[in-house]
Amino acid sequence: MKFIAREGGRELHVEVVRHGGGYRVCIGDKCMDADLVRAGAYVRSLRLEDGTQLSLIHHASGNTHEITLGETTVRVEIVDPLAARRRRREDEISGDGTVKAPMPGRVVRILAAKGESVRKGAGLLILEAMKMENEIQSPTDGTVDELFVDAGQTVEAGAELVHIS
Q1: Mean local confidence (pLDDT), 83-94
Q2: Which CATH code fits 2-79?
Q3: What average pLDDT does range 113-127 have in this prediction?
Q4: Dihedral of CA 22/24/30/36: which sign?
Q5: Residue in 121, 114, 119, 125 with CA at minimum distance from that of residue 151
Q6: Domain assignments of the chain as residue spans, ordered by start
Q7: For residues 70 and 54, what is the distance between their CA atoms, to the nearest angstrom?
Q8: CB 94 within 8 A of CB 131
């Protein structure tokens, strides 16, 4: 899973991937193996690759996460870069109603048929990228005029997927 962590005016690109019994966490160009276990409603036990065991407190409210480790508390906003793109509509829909792929991937399933009326936010198709399934949603109310892809097809970022009028 890739996301952006914003803290104190800084933006950090973070990637977390299952690795053995734990996770491989990359922040920028630095990576480490770690294991995180829930030890209570807000308490987490964190074990680092060198064997160091830490206890931390984690509170989440929406996208904001407050993490306390010892005497230090940090507030971090977690942003899904794909969701941010969807909100901006820069990569999803052109002025002519064409929904485009926000990333390279494989079309797993088509959810909307040609001629079907869709509402804003309705699922159009499922695009698998980096072993994660992403629902591509309609950015507007309208009718599906054209499907440019089929299930099983591989697409590049920016490829035309669906046209809505």
Answers
A1: 51
A2: 3.30.700.30
A3: 93
A4: negative
A5: 125
A6: 2-79, 83-164
A7: 9
A8: no
Contact 58, 66 (CB under 8 A): yes
H/E stretch holding 83 = helix 81-88
Class of domain 83-164: mainly beta
Structure tokens at 87: 């909100």
- Given a contact cutoff of 8 angstroms between Cβ atoms, the answer to whether 58 and 46 are in contact is no
pTM: 0.48
Please give the pLDDT value at position 83. 61
Cα separation, 56 vs 50, whole angstroms: 17
Do 82 and 134 touch, CB atoms closer than 8 A? Answer: yes
Rounded to whole angstroms, the Cα distance separating 97 from 5 reads 32
15 CB contacts (<8 Å, ≥6 apart)? Answer: 1, 2, 25, 26
CB 23, CB 34: distance < 8 Å: yes
Query: For 26-59, how does the pLDDT look when each residue is reduced to its tens digit (9 = 90+)?
Result: 998 999 999 999 898 899 999 999 999 999 999 9
**Alpha carbons 43 and 57: distance in angstroms, whole number:** 5
Between the CA of residue 61 and those of 3, 67, 76, what are the distances in Å? 17, 12, 11
